[in-house]
Each structure stands twice: as structure tokens, then as C-alpha cells.
Amino acid sequence: MFPFPQGRKPGSLLRRATVTFMAIALTVLVSACSSARDLGSSATSTPVKGGSVTFAVALDAIPGSVFQTLETNYPWFNNVFESLLTVDPKDPDHPKPLLASSWKVSEDNLSIDITLRDDVTFHTGRKMTADDVKYSFEQAAKPTSGSQLSFVPKAFQAMTVVSPTELKISFTGPQPSLFDFFNQTPIIDEKTASGLADGTRVTGTGPFMFTDWKPGASFTLKKYERYWNAKAVNLDSIQYVVTTDATALLSALRSGRAQIAMGITATDAKSFDGNNQYQVTGSGGTFYTFGMNTSVAPFNNPKVRQAVAYALDRDRINSQVLAKTGYVSDLYWGAATPGLNGDDVTHYSYDPDKAKQLIQEAGAAGATVPITFHGNPVVKAMFEIVANNLTEIGLAPQANNVDQPTFQAQQIAADLGTAWLQNNGQGGLSPATLLNSLPVLRKTNPSKFVSPEYDKRRQSMFTATSESDKKAALQKMTDYVLDQVWAAPIIQAPSPVVASSALHGLQLSPRGPVVLTEAYLSK
To answer: Domain spanning 284-494 has what CATH number?
Structure first.
């Protein structure tokens, strides 16, 4: 299937001089001879113009969450919206221009001058300018945006529009997460932004326009004729069909009603291996986590949280749910991260006897544990195993299955109940960035975990300068999160994507989104 590498070399803001920690590349290598960047491109030499592709997805679009990294938006988002730059998984340390044509960071790393393309228009036909970039960054900084990287623009001291194509940004200090923010943040149209919440006006600068949304059922992307790189676009439209039924997803692929599907389990995806009518791969890197509310019983007791961490049968989940495509770990950063003790990755190896003993010591035997989760087939499959694991150690798990929009609203409000299963697609970010971006690690987290010691260790990670200080800060943070374990990592894994071998030019972003700008169907 698709292996899951865990390391890459350090990067920086400019000349990679200001990086705090090494980023862990969760870019995905695919099975057989397919390329993770461009599936099926070798089958035909000349792209075919026109036609429509049907894309079967497990989760509906959430247009109102444009600033968040949501797996439910991976299938369509980067075909409608664009950011200032893009990252090639083959060269992740050197971002490439997209809506920005160039940029220059000051020698002191306290400002950046950005030059924009002058030929970009929104889907309304209005020309994109530096004012739109400034507006988009201002919106991303708001708490209501839900952006995992909102902490970056909050550190902008000033944003000055120099001209329609020039923007200057100054910072309160060096920003090692700046290019992550530029890559992840879409440029939106201020004139129609109010229509994003209910999906009535979803306006980007990308190759396709978002139309005909029937919530919970379907939506369509239609080719934008005035796209700045229109000659690269081949398809006339992309039809998205939404179904949470895993059997229906498989049926759509096998019957030919859909040419591509996302949201199926890795086990189901693996069933297509060896069939030359399909191409199987994975997109992005997703963290799957069991979160616990430390403000309520039984999880206000660290022993209970530790018991859960020991009780989770991660290898079984990896085998049965993810077809062994995941990376099992107790941490949010890879074993190859400089300064990390490799044994920490398996600190909480499966040990139900020890877990049961901790539950008894805490006096928590028989405690009811409502677990909130949403309709993603992978998460639903994980719940069954997790529930059995908790029952085995003496807890009483209860399912609280909610729809994706409800779960997302609760996540933004940091109010997910007593316990929950959570998936976040933030693979590829450094430990320092993850501390501010990953919901379970933020200062305001749904676990309600607050601690002066946590604040102290977070600050040490942000301010360490020497290599020895960086390594020491990471190890101290690792020791602390393992001891307090307010959210137990289960696994890191790519999202399976299965496509017809007749679909070519499909591009997969290392962050997860599927890009169909240059996709086409062979005759």
C-alpha cells in the first residue's frame, strides 16, 4: 500500500536560519509505480480536454471552515481556493510561488515583502489585490476562524498594502511557522465572504467554482474560464457525491459510477491493490487521538488517563482499520526528531493488565465514559476497538455519534464532552508549530488541561536557540505530555485515495488536499 515515512531535514523562514525544530514530513509514498504528486500521468502523453469526473466522498463539504485544515474538505478545497505559495513534497524546504510571484525576508527576519501575481481574479471576475491578502490574513487571525495557525498572524506587528500587488508584513519576532501559514491560508473574497457560512457564495481564485451544493448529498465544481492558468485545466467539471456508507463508496468505484473516492478505510482501499483498473495511494498525514476532559471525572485523575493510554491497542487498530499503513506512536512528533528518546514513542505499549490496575487504584472501575465522534468511516471503525479496550479495563464507554458540522463546532468551542475520538490532518508541521496548531495541544484545548508547568515548557520550546537547548526543551516537553497524557495519540496515517486508472494528472498535497487542476480522463 503506502508507507509512512517519519523524518526530513530541518527548514527555516529564509535560509532556514530561524527554525525552532525539525519538521516531520508526513508526505506519502504510493504503491506500485504511481507518483504521489501526479497519478497516472505516464499512461497517455497528451492530456484530454473536457469531460467530467465523479468523486465519491464520505464526508460533506464545510465551506464555512475555509481557514481550518479539515479532512472533510480535502477532496475539493484546493481546487476552489488558493494560497500564496505551495510546497513540493520532493523539496519541502523550498516553497514555490502560487498567488505570490516572489517574496523577500529582511536580514533580521522581522519583516517580509510579498509581490503578488497581477493576473489573478476571483470567481466573481474581480481582480485579486494585496488588500484581499491582508483581509484574508486578518480573518484567519480571529478566534472564530478556527485556523490552526491563527497564532501566526496574531504576531504580525503591521500589514501594509504598498500597491495592488505588494504587501509588507512586519513581525514582533522571527516567525518559524510563517511559510506553513502562507501555504495553508486561502485568499478569500471580502465581497462575498459572508456567503461562506451557509455555502451560498463560495468564492476563490482556483481553477474550479463551487456550485450546486445540496448539503449532505452532493456538490459540483465547474471550470473557471478566467483562471490565471486556464491552459493547465482539462476537466469541465467535478461532481461530488456524498455518502457515509462505506459499502456505497466501494460500489460507486467498482461500478464505474465514480472515478475517484476518498474516505474509505485503508482495509477497503487495499482490496484494490493488484487491480490494474485502479490506482491506490494516500494523501497527507492525519493524527488520530483519544481526547479526555481533565476537568471532569474520571479523567481529572492522571492515573485514569494513563490507564487509557496503556489500554489502547494501537497495533490492532493499525492492522484492522488502517491495513498496517499507519505509524503507531504515543507522540505527536516522529521518532527521528532531533533530541527525542526513541523509546518514548512506545512508552504506552499495549498493557491492559497495567491499565486495569491503574483504574482500580484510581477507584474508577465502572465509570461511564461517553465518547464523542463523527461519521468518518475510519473513526467509526476505530471507536469499536477503543470501546472494547476501555471495557476490558473496567470502564463503561458510551457512543455519542454526531455529524461532522456538530463535531467541528464543538471542537472550535473546545467543548467535546467527557471523551472523544479526533482526527486532525496536520502532518508535516514541526513540534513547535504543533503546540500552537493542533487542537489537543493548544493552550485552549478541549481537554481543559491548563498548567503553569506546561506553559513554562511550551515557552522553552519557542525560545530555545542552541541545538542542545532545543533538544533539551523537546525532551522535557515529551516527558511532560507522556506523564499528563490529557490526549492519547493513537496513530498517524495518510487518508486513502482510490482512483480509476483512466484518471490522470491527479495531484496529492503533502498536507492532504487532492488537486485536480491538471487531471483528465483518458479516451
So the answer is: 3.10.105.10
